């Protein structure tokens, strides 16, 4: 089936550093998402992105967060600076119009 | 307050048994419901979706939807140990909006 690729699978960084999480969505998908999941629990919406713009973001999407997809390449989530509470698994997802979300395998972020 | 409530939080069923999971949305604008399954350490994969009142069956899985009460349920018959996973319910307004997920039901099927 369709695959969403995420790089890296795991990143360990010191608090205050910058991190960029990369997502390669399914090729013909138009809508892109980032979700945050802590300890295998609730999947919490961060942001969705369409046609080069942020469509909607949650209160979890702090000022230190940003997303972009320059020239149709990776869809990225950047956190600068990171905080301890940013430790989580970040899932990228994409969808084509209406229909299900396809999730990547996640990027586990550990902030020390 | 959670907009998507799932119950129970955890469920243990014997192999071959029936597992029943529930989900209710408090957002009266939602009309699409999704069930995802997430095995430990893996990504969520969609199991079933339902948009119309009634019932939908795919193999051992049956999903019900009551749009008036915004309640959906997932039933797994002849449960297998491989069904052990976190089951996430999601609801959205139409097909294009962001799905909001519940906290999930952790299902354990013991041999």
Question: What's a quick, concise take on this entry?
Answer:
The complex is a heterodimer of chains A (112) and B (111). Chain A is mainly β and 112 residues long. In chain A, 0% of the residues lie in helices and 51% in strands.
Question: What this model shows, in words?
Answer:
The complex is a heterodimer of chains A (112) and B (111). With 112 residues, chain A is mainly beta. Chain A has no helices and 11 strands. Chain A has strands spanning 5-7, 10-13, 19-24, 31-37, 43-50, 53-57, 65-68, 75-79, 88-95, 102-103, 107-111. In chain A, strands 2, 4, 5, 6, 9, 10 and 11 form a 7-stranded mixed β-sheet that branches. Chain A has a 4-stranded antiparallel β-sheet with strand order 1-3-8-7, with no helix packed on it. The termini of chain A are far apart. The mean pLDDT of chain A is 93. In chain B, a hairpin with a 6-residue loop joins strand 4 (32-38) and strand 5. In chain B, 35% of the residues are buried. In chain B, the strands form 2 sheets. In chain B, strands 2, 4, 5, 9, 10 and 11 form a 6-stranded mixed β-sheet that branches. The model of chain B has no long low-confidence stretch (mean pLDDT 93). With 111 residues, chain B is mainly beta. Chains A and B meet through strand 4 and strand 5 of A and strand 5, strand 9 and strand 10 of B.
Mean pLDDT of chain B: 93
Number of helices of chain A: 0
Strand content of chain B: over 45%
Total number of strands of chain B: 11
Helix content range of the residues of chain A, please?
Answer: under 10%
Strand content of chain A: over 45%
Rg result of chain A: 13 Å
Elements of chain A, N to C (H/E): EEEEEEEEEEE
* N to C succession of SSEs of chain B: EEEEEEEEEEE
Helix tally of chain B equals 0
Largest sheet of chain A: 7 strands, mixed
Any chance you could write out the topology, listing elements then pairs?
The complex is a heterodimer of chains A (112) and B (111).
Chain A: E1 5-7, E2 10-13, E3 19-24, E4 31-37, E5 43-50, E6 53-57, E7 65-68, E8 75-79, E9 88-95, E10 102-103, E11 107-111
Chain B: E1 4-7, E2 10-14, E3 19-25, E4 32-38, E5 45-50, E6 54-58, E7 61-66, E8 71-76, E9 85-92, E10 100-101, E11 105-110
Parallel strand pairs in B: 2-11
Antiparallel strand pairs in B: 1-3, 3-8, 4-5, 4-9, 6-7, 7-8, 9-10, 9-11
């Amino acid at each position: 089936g369709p695959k969403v690729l995420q790089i890296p699978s795991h990143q360990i960084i010191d608090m205050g550093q910058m991190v960029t999480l990369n997502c390669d969505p399914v090729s013909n998908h138009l809508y892109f998402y980032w979700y945050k999941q802590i300890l295998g629990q609730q999947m919490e919406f961060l942001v969705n992105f369409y046609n080069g713009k942020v469509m909607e973001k949650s209160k979890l999407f702090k000022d230190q967060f940003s997303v972009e997809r320059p020239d149709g390449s990776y869809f990225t989530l950047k956190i600068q600076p990171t905080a301890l509470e940013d430790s989580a698994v970040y899932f990228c997802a994409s969808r084509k119009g209406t229909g299900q979300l396809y999730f990547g395998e996640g990027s586990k972020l550990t902030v020390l | 307050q959670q907009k998507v409530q799932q119950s129970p939080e955890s469920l243990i069923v014997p192999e071959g048994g029936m597992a029943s999971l529930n989900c209710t949305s408090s957002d009266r604008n939602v009309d699409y419901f999704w069930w995802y399954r997430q095995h430990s350490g893996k990504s969520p994969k969609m199991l079933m979706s339902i948009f119309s009142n009634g019932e939908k069956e795919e193999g051992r899985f049956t999903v019900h939807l009551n749009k008036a009460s915004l309640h959906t349920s997932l039933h797994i018959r002849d449960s297998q140990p491989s069904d052990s996973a976190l089951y996430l319910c999601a609801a959205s307004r139409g097909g294009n909006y962001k799905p909001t997920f519940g906290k999930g039901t952790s299902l354990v099927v013991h041999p």
